[in-house]
């Protein structure tokens, strides 16, 4: 698991790690880019990766893909949780249950997974109830992922700190 703030270097660290483990890793992208700025961010990520990557885009059911015996970078858990949150009508409990089931189903696949996620709950509390609910959900989701991870890295200003 690789976590940290926005633009902290999480994805680059995870990509480097995946390439150190395999000459042909899988990049499992969970984002649904809804606007031009987000599409630009996705494009920057894509340009950074070479032809050695197998790219899969999936917003909800990651385990539905053939990932057996591969090194799989899931980028990112935050967007995956966002997709599930809205899929479940912004119900934090339904979303957490769905995430746990899908995550646990993913872990039944005989592969090595690298999960990228964000730490969004380190700042102030939002005035927006939906944002507070999502922040709570992501905190619980990140705890679930970290509990199952062999290693957890926190990226701060491009510096990786192994915390588990």
Describe the structure.
By secondary structure, the protein is α/β, with parallel strands linked by helices. The chain has five helices and seven strands. The protein has a four-stranded parallel sheet with strand order 3-2-4-5. The mean pLDDT is 93.
Brief write-up:
Helix content is 43%, strand content 18%.
> What proportion strand?
15-25%
Question: What is the mean predicted local confidence, pLDDT?
Answer: 93
> Taking Cα atoms only, what radius of gyration do you get, to the nearest Å?
15 Å
The low-pLDDT segments are none
Described by its quaternary structure, the protein is single chain
Helix content: 40-55%
Distance from N terminus to C terminus (CA atoms, Å) equals 9 Å
Order of helices and strands: EHEHEEHHEHEE
Shape: globular
Strand neighbour order, sheet with most strands: 3-2-4-5
The main β sheet shows up as: 4 strands, parallel
Structural class: alpha/beta
Number of strands: 7
The tally of helices reads 5
Keywords:
164 residues, alpha/beta, four-stranded parallel sheet, 5 helices
Helix-strand blueprint:
Blueprint: E1 2-4, H1 10-21, E2 26-29, H2 36-48, E3 54-57, E4 71-75, H3 77-87, H4 92-106, E5 112-116, H5 129-148, E6 153-156, E7 159-162
Parallel strand pairs: 1-6, 2-3, 2-4, 4-5
Antiparallel strand pairs: 6-7
């Amino acid at each position: 698991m690789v976590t940290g703030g926005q633009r902290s270097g999480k994805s680059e660290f995870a990509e480097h790690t995946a390439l150190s483990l395999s000459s042909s890793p899988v990049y499992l992208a969970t984002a649904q880019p809804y606007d031009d700025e987000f599409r630009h961010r996705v494009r920057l990520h894509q340009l950074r990766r070479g032809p050695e990557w197998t790219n899969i885009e999936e917003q909800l059911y990651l385990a539905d893909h053939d990932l057996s015996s591969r090194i799989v970078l899931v980028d990112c858990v935050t967007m995956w949780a966002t997709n599930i949150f809205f899929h479940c009508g912004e119900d934090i409990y339904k979303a957490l249950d769905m995430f746990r089931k899908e995550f646990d189903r993913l872990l039944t696949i005989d592969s090595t997974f690298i999960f990228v996620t964000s730490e969004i709950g380190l700042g102030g509390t939002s005035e927006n109830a939906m944002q507070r609910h999502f922040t709570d959900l992501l905190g619980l989701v990140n705890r679930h992922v970290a509990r199952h991870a062999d290693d957890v890295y926190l990226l701060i200003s491009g510096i990786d700190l192994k915390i588990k």
